[in-house]
Amino acid sequence: MASDAPDDEATITPRDNGPYFVIGSVKLVDLEGKPIPYEGRLALCRCGHSGTKPICDGSHRDSGFESVVRA
Ligand code: FES
Fold first, then answer.
1. 68 assigned to some structural domain
2. What is the CATH number of the domain that holds 25?
């Protein structure tokens, strides 16, 4: 899928029935500005069932979460 974002900008893609995939360099911080560590590709929970919020832990698969986003 083509993106209109410049190469130096992150791209966030809502996955079908799953998390937001973040591609590119981003800094994930809490409300106090403290870094929230993550490894590898960043996937942000949007189902509300992750035990590691805001990072997706795969719980959406067993929760029945459904969301398909198309522009
Ligand atoms: S989207 Fe994966 S655990 Fe919520």
1. yes
2. 3.40.5.90
The domain of 29 spans 10-71
Structure tokens at 11: 């791209």
**Rounded to an integer, what distance in angstroms lies between the CA atom of residue 30 and that of residue 60?**
22
The SS3 call for residue 60 is helix
What pLDDT digit, counting tens, does each position of 19-56 carry? 999 999 999 999 999 999 998 899 999 999 999 999 99
Residue 46 lies in a domain: yes
Using the mean position of ligand 1's atoms as its centre, give its distance from the Cα of residue 32 in Å.
23
The reply to whether ligand 1 has any atom less than 6 angstroms from the CB of 42 is: no
Is 56's C-beta closer than 6 angstroms to any atom of ligand 1?
A: yes
Average pLDDT over residues 58-63: 98
pTM for this entry: 0.86
